[in-house]
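Q: Given only this backbone (188 positions), what sequence would you predict?
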């Protein structure tokens, strides 16, 4: 069965996005070659990417461009080549390479995808999708990059969760230059 994994940047005060969807705080790290190597290695894990409309539009407007490829060729290659499932009722099409638009219920679609053969499913960003999948108990693993910054308000990952969900620590690693901490949890 395919696992559902979550990869997110979060602040020290627990937000994955700031007020009005601001995410600029996640890209203010000082140069940190060790952290960059780690991100590149982690990205090699592959998987089918799951996006909501907002995250899809943000990613699709950057990674296929010259600016995206110049900013990080390794991540751009992975983002552009991976299969993508985009959940949106308002988009007319998902034209980014290897993207498929799904207008039905994300929970039912992910449950269906889990039964098919293929790589794990990876959610990046996409807070509304994360919240729906979390409420349905479908998130198997959580990978977080904790950024050493507090923003005071924004959105948390598991908004609307009504039942306690427990996870166990799989691994953790700190990066002194950037101050970032990577933590990975598996659902119990």
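A: Predicted residues:
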């Amino acid at each position: 069965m395919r696992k559902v994994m979550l990869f997110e940047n979060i602040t020290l005060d627990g937000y994955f996005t700031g007020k009005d969807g601001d995410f600029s705080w996640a890209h203010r790290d000082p140069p940190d070659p060790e952290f960059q190597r780690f991100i590149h290695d982690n990205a090699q894990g592959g998987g089918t990417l799951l996006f909501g409309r907002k995250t899809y539009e943000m990613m699709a407007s950057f990674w296929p461009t010259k600016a995206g490829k110049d900013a990080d060729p390794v991540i751009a290659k992975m983002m552009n080549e991976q299969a993508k499932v985009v959940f949106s009722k308002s988009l007319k099409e998902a034209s980014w390479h290897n993207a498929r638009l799904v207008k039905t219920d994300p929970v039912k679609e992910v449950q269906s995808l889990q039964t098919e053969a293929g790589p794990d499913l990876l959610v990046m960003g996409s807070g509304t999708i994360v919240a729906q999948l979390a409420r349905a108990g479908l998130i198997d693993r959580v990978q977080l990059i904790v950024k050493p910054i507090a923003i005071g308000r924004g959105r948390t990952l598991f908004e609307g969760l009504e039942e306690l969900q427990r996870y166990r620590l799989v691994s953790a690693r700190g990066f002194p230059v950037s101050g970032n901490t990577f933590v990975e949890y598996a659902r119990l």
